Amino acid sequence: MVVGMSGVRLVASPNKRARRGEETLRLVVIHGTWMRDDAAALARLCDPAAEVSCHYYITRSGEVIQLVDEREVAFHAGKSAWRDITGSVNGYSLGIEVANSGPFLEYPDGPPAGVEQGSVDWAAAERYSEAQYAALIGLLRDILRRNPGILPEAVVGHSEVAPGRKIDPGEHFDWKRIKDGLTG
Ligand SMILES: [Zn+2]
Hints:
By secondary structure, the chain is of the alpha/beta class. The protein has helices at 38-45, 130-146, 158-161, 175-183; strands at 9-10, 16-18, 27-32, 56-58, 64-66, 72-74, 93-98, 155-157.
């Protein structure tokens, strides 16, 4: 049985592990994919060699796709920390990938290593779509309702848990809209 949103399409990823007893859900990490194509992004998130995944993926048209059951750990944040959690927040979090090229439109398959840590032009970044914000707020409200251990302020960006290494979902991501959507 899959625990999560009803009515979402499933694209199961093998890149996951069981959640350990002490690993209670405490936060949600929002990502930008930095990839242009949904099929390519989903293929990477399901490729055992890539060893990356997420719980949910939101397409540019606002479709929500589930890749990993919420009761299992997805490999989305890598080396990361939040409050007293060190090493990686993966065990304690749900990961949501939002399809977006960010400031890397010239790299359809994502920026090469090191490019993300350089200077980037946020003004030229691909906008997140209206449909994506609506779908993301609906998904987050559902997650927070079902998981009282995740507080609204614990919805954070990848850049917040992996500073200096990751910059997604990016400066062009409208956090105020998300926070308003969660508290309204
Ligand atoms: Zn990320």
